[in-house]
Amino acid sequence: MSSITAPRSVATPLIALIICGCIIAAVTNGIRTSFGLLTLPMTADLGLTREAWGMAMAIQNLAWGIAQPFAGGLADRYGTAKVIIGGLLVYALGLTLMVVSPTGSMLNLTAGVITGVGIATSSFSIVMIAFGRSVPQEKRSLVFGVATAASSFGQFAFAPIGQAFISNFGWQSALIYAAAILALVIPLTFALRGRTERAAGQADLKFMEALSRAWGFGSYRLLVIGFFVCGFHLAFVNVHMPAYLVQCGLSPEVGSWAIAVIGLFNIVGSLAAGYLGGRLPKQLLLASIYFSRAVAIGLFVLFPVTEVSAYMFAAAMGLLWLSTVPLTAGLVTLFFGARYMGMLYGVAFFSHQLGSFVGVWLGGFVYDHTGSYSLVWYLGILLGLASAAIHLPIRELSAKSFQLKPA
Q: Is residue 2 part of a domain?
């Protein structure tokens, strides 16, 4: 299979590209996954309900999902570095404006729309486009796993750092410091410059034509639908679990360390998924991940919540956290080639973010109306089992509609 590389004039040594891309992925994801630590201080200081805060986070995930296909398409056509620079600036702007957003409506705009668009155009999904064009198909799952593991390391590193900033300087200063860190990584985007070129024998399609052909491919449809559940799980746990643990009588520090443990164990999970994805059927690995999540959630809600059980659950979920990403991205590039990875993985990621929207908002809604998160935990179990079943019929085949027809 032909590999797709950046034009020689903008070529970067692969190791430099991977290191710089991993740092960007770690910073952007680390900051994003720390938002759950803001739930209690911001709702208390601003007088917001849990549902209002959850709505802002839900809109962030939805804006991220809506913008992702377009961000991916722009990166495919005009280059990853340009898109990431713009995204980092928008991301930093959103964090800064959160400081001066005293109402839920303002947070919907700043923490929601602006920050969500910034994440879409600067996070690991765009970094993986640069990785995908630089390595052959058989190694892409592993490299995608490296990018995902770097994102997880950011979650591990930023959770305790973020909690320390909030505890010592207040949530407002913590957001300003995070915005400054985003600005500092802009020079690293130089290593990711370049765009993906069309491979020999591959059709050159416009956005809607490519999307139409892709959606007609049954395995892609199932992959997109199943990815909804991944977003539901991740967003609900990330945003609401710190507050849930406090409700169960544990300290806020336990919540921050639980998020950190998820990030730490996901480094192992992401690397393992990337490695195994090059050797075993990706769809079966994905089905196993979703089934295992359902089991982990079921055990967590079945037994009393203690500091030990919180960390055990965080470790289990960490192994399964973003391990879906290298496998999903690997299937997308197998189906359609690297030329359309940014756009068509972005469409799949939109489904993921729809799930995130529902998970974050529903968590706040259910808590405000019942005083408990139990219903959402149970729904997470059912969705995990459903997603496991959906992935079983997927086949690892290239979509013929994306190949040039003989003259």
A: no
Distances from the Cα of 141 to the Cαs of 35, 75, 334, in angstroms?
A: 29, 20, 10
The DSSP element (H or E) to which 243 belongs, if any, is helix 218-247
Q: How far is Cα 111 from Cα 178, in angstroms, rounded to an integer?
A: 13
Residues paired with residue 403 on neighbouring β-strands, in sequence order:
202
pLDDT tens digits, one per residue of 250-285: 988 898 889 889 988 988 998 888 889 888 999 999
Q: What is the CATH number of the domain that holds 392?
A: 1.20.1250.20
Structural domain includes residue 338: yes
| Domain that residue 246 falls in | 13-196+207-396
Q: What Å distances lie between residue 238 and 233, 348, 399, CA to CA?
A: 8, 20, 35
Q: What is the pTM of this model?
A: 0.76
Give residues with Cβ within 8 angstroms of 84, minimum separation 6: 24, 75, 121, 122, 126, 127, 189, 192
Buried-exposed string 283-302: b where 16+ CB fall within 10 A, e elsewhere: bbbbbbbbbbbbebbbebee
Count CA atoms within 13 Å of residue 5 on its CB side.
Answer: 13
List, for residues 299-346, the tens digit of each pLDDT value: 999 999 999 999 999 999 999 988 898 899 888 888 887 677 777 888
Contact 170, 40 (CB under 8 A): no
Burial class (CB in 10 A: 0-12, 13-18, 19+), 203: middle
CA dihedral (117, 123, 125, 126) positive or negative: positive
Question: 202: which strand partners?
Answer: 403
